[in-house]
Fold this sequence. Notes:
single chain; mainly alpha; 3 helices; rod-shaped
Amino acid sequence: MASDLCRRASDDSPVHSAEFIVFAARLEELHQCSAVLRRTRLRAEEIVDEARTLLAEAEQRGDTDRVLELRAQLEQARGMYGKVLSAYVTICRKIAEERQAILREQMGLSGAA
């Protein structure tokens, strides 16, 4: 009986419309997250570049203590950049999956009509 209810619900046009609205809202939410992560990724790249520049300057001056400190900071910046990049790639992948789900849903609707 439960499977009959699911079958009827999946064939019901208002249910498809509601599902599409949910997919679209989720996709918009993911796009907003992606935009924030894109800006964060760009800033993280800048920080890594700045740390690399500071390290090079300290190495040229022969400031051994500063070089050690800046190397550690550069590695930390690279690690954080890697995490941001990983999150960005994950969000982009999720956006692609959501788009595919919406397309499948739309094809299902057009096939039923």
